[in-house]
Amino acid sequence: MHRAFASSRPLQLAFGLTLTAALSACPDGGSGVTTESTGGPTGGDPTGSSEATDGTSSGGPTAPTTGDEPTGTATTSVDPTAGDPTGTTANTTGPDETTGPDETTGDPPVDPGWSERDYARVFLSGHSLTDNPLADFMLEIAAGVGVDLNYNQQIGIGSPIRVRTLGGSWDNLDWPGYKTGKNREGSDMDVIAELKAPQTLGPGELYDTLVITERHDILGTIQWEDTTGLLRHYHDRLIDGNPAGQTLLYHSWLGMDKAAPEAWITHEKNALFAWECVAAKVNHTLEAEGRPDRVTTLPVGAALVHLVEAVLADEVAGIEGAVNQKLDQLFSDDVHLTPLGAYYAALVTHAAVFRSSPVGAPVPQGVPSEPAADLQQLAWEFVRDYYTNAASGQHTMEECRAFIADQVCASFWTLLNEPGSISGCSDHFSNADAEGNPFRWPDPQLMVWPAP
């Protein structure tokens, strides 16, 4: 039964061919939205890197949110419940509504107490936007402010979560993707085994935090790469080793035109909603099983927008010049960060993991010192305000469908200079019954991946 389920996914991917035209309009030959470098129809690296991910050919392209409904997919169903301890109900309406007024947002993704931590054991799973020096800078920040951090990582350049779990084929239910990627030392660690019984931490230590990102074209991965299902699978591997663990879904960002960043700013503000909706859907599935653990969004992309706006308003010391000259100090190309930009991402991630201020942290070698104090303050203010706001990330599935269809589709395809794709994207995500649109609850189409 599981094999029939897995084998149907390439049929869905067959509808992705139209993305190639969109990629041709992206800066740097398609660095705005691509898949891992596997020789597939879209090629490239969504993070703009020319590096390839080993062994990741999926047999099909990814990501156009065109509204074409995928071919029927066999599913493994569960008995979801729609209970919500907060009693919050949907308050907006959307097309093709099927879930009704009992739809809820699920448990709040933020800790109402938001108490500080002084210890964290982090596993980081991502691609080039979360590659070193991000974790290296986090270590320096933690040591400098007197908290205890250790980590390991799985980095697959250009990879969606699917490649870091299933690997290159939807049929790989022995989960070879968990044994791929660059680690803190060496490569191809058995991540499942490491999360369950860590061999690279101190004696008796467990991972308490998973920081994981999806490929940055989040609308495409939601539709074509089963982001919600495979995020849940990875989160479960953390919980296998530590039932008290927490997962932070790291908001990655698309490429920008540094001479005219307005479309990028608009989109990444909108895109945060989509990342939050992914976390909300996973939390519904956890709640349905009576579990207390949850996935929380780590809004790095939105925090980066906050920094860009401050820089453009001349509110950051030591960053001057024309618009593109200012942004050149944060971005090394259209999407990757300079050491200064990576330091800011590390400050944001530190603040989210430890729930405490990084103000006063040391400045790593190679990072300009003059802007550092402003970056520390901006990172802390953004993270603190996000996690102490009870409304952050609180979206019903109906609200997710409506906002993504009305706002995110438009800003996504406008940024890619493909306005003709907006309508199909909106049609797809507004339709609660569409396969490849996970934003419904209860979910009769819910697909559950088997444990290893």
Automatic annotation (TrEMBL):
Q: What is the lineage of its organism?
A: Bacteria, Pseudomonadati, Myxococcota, Polyangia, Nannocystales
Protein species of origin: Nannocystis exedens
Q: Does the keyword Iron apply?
A: no
Residue ranges for the region (Disordered) are: 26-114
Alphabetically ordered keywords of this record:
Signal
Biased composition, class Low complexity, residue ranges: 47-76, 92-108
Q: Which residues form the signal peptide?
A: 1-25
What name does the UniProt record give this protein?
A: Uncharacterized protein
**Record GO terms (molecular function):** hydrolase activity, acting on ester bonds
Has UniProt tagged this entry with the keyword Coiled coil? Answer: no
